[in-house]
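Risk register update: the risk of archive-format incompatibility is retired. Evidence:
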Amino acid sequence: MFTGIIETLGRVERRTAAGLTVAAKIGAPRLGASIAINGCCLTVVESRGGRHRFDVGPETWARTNLGALSAAGAVNVETALKVGDELGGHFVTGHVDATAEILELSPWTEGFRRLRVALPAALRGLVAAKGSIAVDGVSLTVTAAAAGHFEIMLVPHTLSRTTLGRRRVGERVNLEADPLARYALNAARTLRRRA
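Archived output:
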């Protein structure tokens, strides 16, 4: 479990068909620890000298934007939530629902940017204005939602401390709906079936 508050930017050291190595200043996580890379929960299989290696299977490569990473590319890094930690964002599982294309990234007001992202069918009914969503692992508040897209206002801090400040129109981002929205939608569907 994560919070969507990115701890640091990491750098891709190596990507192979079976794994990913990321350089990041996150201490020395134990083997088997969960770390979110661009919002995707991965298991540490080796950690030495600030370099952390993860096994990545075909399903993860196919369903996330990790397969598009290039050597020396930046990634968002967050270690798992510990009991007693501050929950500054929202509960994020690290299980990416879908990837989607950035449709617009434009200036909003002084230092702020509007991020418009396509809304995949898998997330329809789970994204609402004032609700939470994780974009590349970053906990964000939805400012507007429509049938085919949603919008977020990116604040200067988020732009400077995450990969979202480096993103471009046409790139794909990892999306994870708020788990609370998922349970609420599931409960509503169950009640409709019983009615």
